[in-house]
Amino acid sequence: MQQHQWQFFRAGGVDQVQIRTGADIANIGQLDQKLWVALACPTRGIEFDSVTLDLIDQDADGRIRAPELVQACEWAVSMVNDPDVLTSGSDVLQLASINESTEQGQALADEARRILALSGQEGAACVSLADVQGRLASLNAMPFNGDGILNPATLSDQPALSALVSRIMEAYGSAQGCDGQPGLGRAQLDNFFTDVQSLADWHTLASSNTCSLPTEAQAVAAVQALNAVQVKVEDFFARTRLAAFDAKALAPISPSVEGYAALGTQVLSKEDAAIAALPLATVVADGVLPLGSGVNPAWAAAMAALQQHAVRPLLGELDSLSAAQWEQLKAQLQPCQAWLASFPASPLGEMGLQEAQALLASGMQQQLQDMIQHDEDEKQHSEHAVALEKLIRLQRDLLALLNNFVSFSQFYSRQGAAFQAGTLYLDGRSCELTVDVANPAAHATLAGMAKVYLAYCECKRGGDKRHIVAAFTAGDVDFLFVGRNGVFYDREGKDWDATITKLIENPTSIGQAFFSPYKKFVRMIEEQVAKRAAAKDASVTEGLNAKAAALVTAPAGTAAAAAAPAKKTDVGTVAAIGVALGSISTVLVGIFSKFVELGPWIPVGLMGLILAISGPSMLIAWLKLRERSLGPILDASGWAINGRMKINMQLGNSLSQTAKVPANAKHMLHDPFAASHTARWVVGVLALVVLAALAWRWGWVNRVLPERMHYGYTASVAVDGGAAPAALAPAPAPAAP
């Protein structure tokens, strides 16, 4: 098979494939993934249609990976006759473009014609995304939309069925339909009527065996009374049998005096657990169980219920029970006891026999099953409509997605990449490289490796809030600080209030790095001066406060002495200051004299001095700018970037643009509020005068005068306005001493 011929372009320091034709899309699976710019991207947080991304995301994990994108391309190519239609970027699909030679293609074409017929466009040659979305929306609103889920809201014309559906959903849960609304599924329906049938069978079994009691209700009451005390009664008769077996056992199995003494120290009630733990009655050998008086007060009510509901109807009027009578009572109620234990527990609770039989005989079970079956029969049409929507969306979006995934051609051609959230206007420039950030703290950990100056901003618009990171890739950064405000415009043109919350500092240019040491030095001096001034001001203020306090609180004589003029400055101090200033000036003069001695090499010396100061900063900036990359910024946002994606100076200058006055604008240069520069001129002139005086003093002027003055030649100059030329003549010999 002939290999597809790819076309590449160089951008971001890597070779990127250029995807333009349908053949490129059809052969995307053959392209070595090492040449892909990205291998995965998130389905949220990027400027791309999220519905299209969800249709490509087969495993619904919120990320699109390379195999999923290849699968989407191959499927879209198989659904059309000519893959070039996938480069049109249109959301209108020509029916003639669908490949009807395959079973799925034929199904999509038939569904497209069906949708057009239902929308009153029968015979149309094309179907649009809006047509398909309209059909899906109307289908979702219908009772039978193909998802096999019954929504009670769509059964308003059948209130009995709607009420039953709501009841089943409340008891057995619901399933979500394709319209996103909860509804009744087949599983919930089957579980409901299975439990109804079980309850009906249980009630029917009770009616055939009521344990010699007149009604089912009486049988249930007798069994419940028996169950309430059975364990305690068995305990009582076991104790009486043990006492009959051996008289020595009577004392240990009966409550002790010490136990009653301990109970006597408490505030008692018949509900106390300690009392309920005592035997039902006084234990004697082969004793009988009293049903009224003599019963443990904690169990008196339960024993009365046993006498009323079980003993009296089955054994007659008895005030006590012997062991034999107890066994007879249990035997008579055992079938009912087993029946009650078999009660089918379900969310329906204690549904009666009549209600259960009415539901089973109503026929609503079959009606609902038929509706679900009818709905499931429409499922195929719904699936074909969704597939048709996917094909139209891929025709519109696939090429753009490939140029934001396999290559970043849209970014490097300045067309707006999918990861660019908008434009931030701040500090007199616009920053176009902005990315949405879910967690700024986590994002900054990895994004700092991009060697880019990054500003994290919190953006607010009404009650909405989002976080972005903006890359400042050109211009100075002297006035960027946390808390500074700007305006962010998203891709839809909406404006957000933006505030810087975090900065990651990196150089933006070599020029900025050149001036950085001087700016830092000036800032350091300003900070030191400010600190010294503040300290001095505090000291003076403290001294004045102390003086004032002393003048107010001291006696008159002392106050006069304190107010007396201070002593004059010590002459020794003045001399010491003069010596210090002289030493400093001597050092400065020495340095300046050495600098002047360079002569014509003075410019080279100046350049060396400047390089010594700015060179390290410029070298570091150059190294960082060479490594400046887009990759870590996107990796921190959930992408899997395969290449380095460098941001060179040219690209950086285009991503962060400063304000420029229009070329055709009229510019009035006069500024009535401009600062006066007189002081600067005066300082400059004084500096030149000082330099000239120092140069004269050190003889530098004599060294640069013509050498002929040192060989005894003089110049004769024409006088009285004559035109005679100046003549050089030997100087007269010196007179003899």
Task: Give descriptors for this structure.
737 residues; alpha+beta; eight-stranded antiparallel β-sheet; three-stranded antiparallel β-sheet; 26 helices; 21 strands; 50% helix; 12% strand; flat
How would you sum up this structure, described in words?
The chain is of the alpha+beta class and 737 residues long. It is built from 26 helices and 21 strands. Strands 13-15-14-17-16-11-12-19 form an 8-stranded antiparallel sheet. Mean pLDDT is 83; it is low at 704-737.
What is the secondary structure topology, with strand pairs?
Elements: E1 8-11, E2 14-17, H1 22-26, E3 38-42, H2 50-56, E4 63-65, H3 66-78, E5 92-94, H4 103-118, E6 126-128, H5 129-141, H6 159-172, E7 175-176, E8 182-183, H7 186-207, H8 216-245, H9 250-253, H10 257-264, H11 273-276, E9 289-290, H12 300-315, E10 320-321, H13 323-341, H14 353-361, H15 364-377, H16 379-402, H17 409-412, E11 422-426, E12 429-431, E13 434-437, H18 440-447, E14 453-461, E15 464-472, E16 485-490, E17 495-504, H19 510-553, H20 556-563, H21 571-596, H22 602-626, H23 631-635, E18 640-641, H24 649-655, E19 656-658, H25 678-697, H26 700-704, E20 713-715, E21 728-730
Antiparallel strand pairs: 1-2, 3-4, 3-18, 5-6, 7-8, 9-10, 11-12, 11-16, 12-19, 13-15, 14-15, 14-17, 16-17, 20-21
Helix pairs in contact: 3-16, 4-16, 5-16, 6-7, 7-14, 8-12, 8-13, 12-13, 19-20, 19-22
